[in-house]
Amino acid sequence: MASKTKVVAITEFMTSVKRKEFIILTFLLPLILVMSMVIPLFFMQTISHQKETLGVVDESGIVLPILKERYTDYIIKEVPSPEEARQLLENNIISNYIVIPKDFLKVGKASYYSKVQLSSFSSANINLERILSDIVIESLLSDKGVSKETINKVKSPIEMERITVTKKGEEVETPFSFVGNYLLPLFLFMSIMNAGGYLLNGIIEEKENKVVEVLLSTISPNELLSGKILGLGGLGILQVGIWISGIVIITSFLKIPLVSFEKGIIIMIFFILGYLFYSSIFAMIGSISTSTRDSQQISAVVSFLVFIPLLLFFGIVQNPNMAFIRLLGMVPPFIPTIMMMRVLLSEVPIIDIVLSMLILSLSLIVSAKIASKIFKVGILMHGKKPSLSEVLRWVRG
Amino acid sequence: MKILEIDNITKKYNTRIAVDNFSLNAESGKIYGFLGPNGAGKTTTIRMIMGIIEPDSGKIKVFGEKLSESTKKRIGYIPEERGLYRKYRVSDLLHYFGKLKGLSSEEAKRNTDMWLEKVGLKDRANSKIEELSKGMQQNIQLIVSLINDPDLIILDEPFVGLDPINTRNIKEIIYSLKDSGKTIIFSTHQMNEAERLCDHIFLINKGRKIIDGPLDDVKKKYSKNFVSVEFQNKVPNLEDIGIVEKVYYEGNKAEIELRKNTNYNDLLELLMKRGDIKKYEISESSLESIFVEVVTDGI
Question: What residue stretches are annotated with the ABC transporter domain (chain B) (predicted)?
Fold first, then answer.
């Protein structure tokens, strides 16, 4: 590395690492994100500890004692009639009630009344439905003289283990990995955007405060640009390093399996290539822009482009290796995020990894060449924003 | 020794010719004034000397060599558009530029301290640039350009926006640089400053060099020799005197423009034969009037 490039890289790194925004993004944001996931979970648990009361109008005469015995999500209160139950609900003495009709065992129908809209996914509801259906199954089968073991077998006939087979043929139990699979690419994406943003602002600042001319009288535009990209890249790697150590600590504490070392390396390569690709794009934007405001507008569009794959996350989860996703994973701007997610979620064919890395590296070389040409001319321009044809001429010239 | 040789450089922007077949030479231990109206091509020329932009044709040699990274280190530069990192501390900024210009960390530190002492800003070493007054920032900008003890110093409009005290400080620094054998080229449109400081003048207009020579020669060559005379009585007719170009009459007084390469003493002798002279005064035209005339007439 040329010594001047090194001086620029070190200075960029040292000044950015001390910035408030960097510290906030690195430490506070993950904390907020983790909290925003942990707090609702915590609430859900405390709420379910503070039991509410379920009124039961049992016209069948069989269900109430079994519910009292097995259903622990609510305090069970016996209510003689539906009218009385409605009264109690309106006076907020009970929070919801269920009416079991006389012919419940035959028809299998019951009505649940509540003031709040019910989620069919709530575990309290699922439990209630399961207990009720167990009651029906038990009564129907024991009437026919079926043994207790058979009845229990009927109540839960199967148990499914979910196992992912890795390349090496190892069998790993699939962890609950939504958080990691989604958050890791999201964070890497943020890190790229953050370092790219610093690069962009740095270029515009130097343009706006005219310091660039002094710089260019001692250092070539290429040295300046490479120094900036390297310094800020170091910043991104530091940031990701901090996050990964955090993840390693947390996952080992929670005993959640981490991604394999190999996958980690592949993801880091995509991260670094992605950063270099996007920083050259940001350098172009910075060179063309004449003020912080118009650079922000252009970079917002770019950030959105990069963000698209993250919006496709739920589609990718369904099938990380489907043709459309594979194709999208070969389009340069989407390669880093798509491939990171695919690698995290599945065993990606090696050809896809090699091909996408190759495409990304080639587009990176091209974009860096274009960026350096635009940078060379654009950084000395102020006042009027150049037209597209002018910019194209710089690239050709 | 030849410090800077510019040989027929031309620079076009699209169809507009910014610098047209421009040449100049500069030697060590001299102060050069690079003059010209706004938009004449001064900044473009300076940027080409600094290697920030490249000429379309022609050659530039510094210290007898082609422009390179090693020659760049020996040139100090203050651009017309001043710029410093506003958030940096003074000492960090000077340190950074020192290292960019190839100084070791220790040298950068030493030179920073030395220069801050010299301009009386030692106590502001830890201030942020944005906390300094404009004059102080200008001084810091000067230090940036001198931090690595360059042999050629190029100052684009160094006096713009400075109060008289800071102007004097910078002039003193320029003189001391000259005394230590450095070459200083500065562009300005303040002709009185140029007249006081420069040994040599380049004047550029519309991208072309119009004047190139030692200050005294330029003044001799381009000044129109004016004499104002006052007679005891009404001024006699003077136009028939051979060395007189033009006469403006005004009662007992007259402004006489002499022909080129003539002598004031000869005129005085001739005038004494025409009448009783009360006052005889030679008024050389200033650099400013030369500038205005040359630029507007497009000589």
Answer: 4-231
